[in-house]
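Reopening this one. Same input as before:
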Amino acid sequence: MRPNYALWIRILFIGLIGAAWVVTPTLGQVDQGFTDTFDDSQLPGWEHSPEVIVSNGVLQISPGQFAARQGAWQDYTLSLKLRYTGEGESNINYRASDQGSYILLIGQDIVTLARATPQGVPQELGRAETAVVNTTDWLSVQVILTGGAHTVSLNGETLITATDADPLKSGGVVLLSMGQRTSEFDDMCLQTTASAVEPTPVEPIAVVAAQTTTPTPAAGTWQDLLRALTSTQGSTFQVDEFVINLLLAVLTSFILSRVYIYWGGSLSNRRKFAANFMLVTITTTFIILVVRSSVALSLGLVGALSIVRFRNAIKDPEELAYLFLAIGLGIGLGDNQRTVTVITLAVVVVVLGVAHLLRQTQADVNLHLAVSSHGSEKITLQQVMDVVAQYAVKLRLLRYDETPEAMEMSFVVEFRHISGLNQTRDALQQLSPSLQVSFLDNKGVW
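Same output, byte for byte:
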């Protein structure tokens, strides 16, 4: 049988969520369990994601959301009612701590019990098929946990009996909803039983301290990572720095646009394209300033930008290079890296200036050439191209139209010197007196 990689990825992800949000309290803490009928919309004793709500006395967890209850419960009986809508899995993590957790995944027609740890691959402990449940019916779920022995029942029927040879010691409970499923929970009860593992003896003073001190997670744990990902607290906003960075964004983007207009080699309308640099740089500066202090906002920005498309394709690699440079200027200024940003722009300007000087011996006259004839004498496209090719260093046909009464063709041409333009005009008029020739400067087109 081929392994279900998607299932294992979900199990590993769920295990990491449980390990991140439920930290084992200090040894010696006594907790007899809890009962919650979810009549309080404030969910006292629970940590949860923003979209978890209590509606009509029922805990409602939408797709991708969670609710966690910290604790150091080891051996107990956990019972609750579950109802769900949509495809996916309803997940119950127990003995969840920074060492790992046991995960009960309840799908549409299958129930899976697995063990997940931050360091290793999830281990399946048991699996059972079940009848498809009506979405309006409540499921009675019960988990009996004694040492490494697990007994899972649905609606009074035992589905999974499994034993973990190296059981997780203790931890809290996490409820999640994955896929497109919305899960509802009610009448949750965790009743502890006598532990099969003797606790390590501790001094009475240490016990009192453990009971009165809030446990602090170790640095570098999964909880720290997840709290960083979900943090929305930004750094202190400095108006003066923001204004300075915006002014620098305007100045640097203006310099970049002038460099592109006068030193760029693109055949497109450089002046019109360069007008976008200022808007791109200022917008990027603002976005980076907003998201730089929150990883969650940064990830949200990635998702938002994934749906953005340019209306017109970038046809010239040089256009893309300048556009990336404008974005880079905005990123640098948005992150308050003024010195690095200004030095980078200065280096780019110097390099492009030197390259422009070295190109002085190359073609510098960039024009649109339009040739038309309305006389009876027929001039072929090949004749015109042969004449222009004698004097131009670059020739590209853009358009060709021919009717019984007239002929029109359009080219993009480059000449090494302005004298090449005059020679081309004279040579074309020698082909036919009725031939009309027009040159249009490509740099100055608006």
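So the earlier flakiness isn't reproducible anymore. For the record, The two ends are 66 Å apart (CA to CA).
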